[in-house]
Design goal:
Strand content: 35-45%
Shape: globular
Radius of gyration: 25 Å
Number of helices: 11
Largest sheet: 7 strands, mixed
Structural class: alpha+beta
Low-confidence stretches: 1-45
Number of strands: 23
Number of domains: 3
Mean pLDDT: 91
Amino acid sequence: MRRRDFLVTGTTAAAGLALTPGLASGLAHGILDPRVHAPAGPRLRVGDPFSRDIAEAALDAATRAGADYADVRVSTNRSQNVSTREQIVTGLSDSETSGVGIRVLVEGTWGFAASNILSSDSAEEIARTAVAQARANRAAQRRPVELAPIGPAEEGEWRSPIEVDPFDVSIEDKVELMLLANAAAIRVPGARFASSTMSFVREEKFFASTDGIVTDQTVYRCWPRMTVSAVASDGSDFQSRQSTPLQPMGLGWEYVRDADLIGQAPLWAEEAVQKLTARSVEPGLWDLVLLPSHLFLTLHESVAHPTELDRIQGFEANYAGTSFIYPVEDYLGSFRYGPDFMNVEGERSAHGGLSTVGWDDEGVRPDEYLIVKDGILNDLQTTREQAPWLADWYGSQGVPVRSHGNSYAQSWAVTQFQRMPNINLRPNQERDVSFDELVSEIDKGIVIEGRGSYSIDQQRYNAQFGGQVFHEIRNGRVVGMLRDVAYQIRTPEFWNSMDQIGGPSTYELGGTFSDGKGQPGQANAVSHGCPATRFRDVTILNTARGG
């Protein structure tokens, strides 16, 4: 089915239906046909007995009801947010949700059901409901779903590499730290307002499938952040500075403890004050040095999202549309994304990465793969359902058809689907190019730090990005602060204007807690590692000027 035809007719499809466009016959490449693959449910051992019994009941019931494949997630998600402004607590939320979600395939069609009732009887009931839904969805089936093979049956446990569980730290201790940091910020002359927020997530997830995969994972995420605002003495202007060096991480309270919010707050306040008197940028062509705290978002929007295979094929058009990479056969292996030294990897193993896990939500152990290799589009993000769509391409490369482990659901209550892993721009592989070296070869340029406002078109081809802090470069030196800066890009032209990439010493993770996708929408937390990187002759706009 053509993508544009799907976008016209797709709204009439039954809820829960999974339509695969298929680029070749998957069976010729060893792809699993779920209609003839229904092994007995595994004897579950990993995890606590309570989750194990529920999962086993769900899989047994789904198989008895006629499912050719089934998987189940028993999970508890806890989320905590604490917010302050100056010396006032402005918000506090601490929520927890538990339940079970069951996904099944019946004659090549998906069904899904979920419940917050955690019992074996309830699990059996929703398993039968999921099978009934799959049978109903068959009325709109255009092509049976085929699943890429998965590794041998395995059981395992995985936990984020934390030192201190943030939920073991009292609210009082968190608030005290934030209020002290706020006070340190507004002691700086000119700084008038300071707000701070801490967000923490813990996902405890037991997964099992009829393929014999049984996993038990606990994933943590944390994000401390501040915003300091300065006001001109006559009240004519105000400028804000966010704590962009502090990116969200898949770590514990130790990350907050070691971030030194109290010590860093005056520095962020001073930069907010400096922005009041910064020179407004002159529009035109400038060279750019983009720091990781900024570049991660440009990478996210112009490389990571366009290489989601469901977007490319038209099965995802929410949150800024589809992708310019279409038809996929015309791009894979030939499209020049950037210069020869541009290598972009997908992985779920980086220490502290927000997408780092032991297994995805289909029980796939993720691999590391190059989405862009030596500047050329080399691979795409896939799940078990999506990988067969690229069977011809993988076959031509002598590569087995397999999922890259890019499936995720934000909770037990929703079905899993393709979500991006950690996607990183690799640093210079030949030598450790420093920030100073990147700057030294620029006559007229700008250093951009932190994320600001941005916009992107429905194909992720044209975009505009702002930032938090801008410093001018003249004759190889950083000479002062600028303001009102944004730059425009066309994706391939922008990445091909990259003429030097920083080394490992400039590499850092950036990321977000809330990457939206899907309908109904789901949020995925994702990290992007980047080095400091130099681009030539980029179009700069002045955001303060009309017309």
